[in-house]
Design a protein that fits this description.
The chain is an alpha/beta fold. Helix content is about 35%, strand content about 15%. It is built from 8 helices and 10 strands. Helix 1 packs parallel to helix 8 (about 230-240), helix 3 (about 70-85) runs parallel beside helix 4 and helix 4 (about 105-115) runs parallel beside helix 5.
Amino acid sequence: MTFKLEVIGFNIESCILAQAAGAHRIELCDNPGEGGTTPSYGFIKAAREKLQIYLYPIIRPRGGDFFYSDAEFEVMKADVKICKELGCEGVVIGILHADGTVDKERCAALVSLAYPLGVTFHRAFDRVTDAVQALEDIIEIGCERILTSGLVPAASDGAETLAALIKQADERIIIMPGSGVRADNIIELAQKTGAVEFHTSARMNIDSKMNYTNETMKENLRSVSLDEREVKMIIANLNSL
C-alpha cells in the first residue's frame, strides 16, 4: 500500500525541511497560534519557487470559527486566485453555516474558482453537527479530501469515527487523519482507520538566535519550526506496513 504524508509548513524553513525529509505535500499556513491562517503572497511565492512537492495553501482569513462574513468571503476568493496565479497544486478550505452545517454554496464557489487545482476541506469538518451528512455535502461540492481528527482533538482518539468515515466515503473522497499524528502512533492509527493519507505538523519550538535580548521586555521569542527527524520516522513507520 502506498501512503502519503502531508506536513504543515508554518515558515519557509519548515517547508524546505519537510521536503528534504520526504513529505509528499505541504499545507502552507501562517499563524500557528491561531490554528493556521492564509499565508502571505511572499510566503506562497517563495515556497512555490523552492519546493518541487505539492503545495496547498490554506484559505482562512482569520482564526476562530469558520462562519465568515461577506467581506471575509471576498478575501478568500481573492486568495484562491493568487494561489492559482502562483502555480500551487491546490488549496485548503472550509466554510460553515452558523448552525454547524457545511456552507455548500460558498464552498462550491471556491472549488469552482480554484479549478483545476485540487481542494482539501480542512478541520472545519470537526465542528459540524452531523458528520455523516457533512461528508456527503463535501463530496457533492467537489473536494478531493477531508482533513479531520474524527471530531475530537486528537486523531488517535477519533480512530473509530475516522474508520467509519472512510467506510462511508467508499473511495469517493480521501479521509486524511490529522492532529496529534506522530511517529509513535502512526502505525496503530493506520491499522485502525484504514487511511492512506495522513497529516502532521511535526512541530517543535526553537529558541531565538539573537545574541542580544532586551530583558526588560520579559518575553520569550521562541518560534515554531519542523522536526525533520519526526517526519522521517513517520514516513519510515508507514513504509514498514
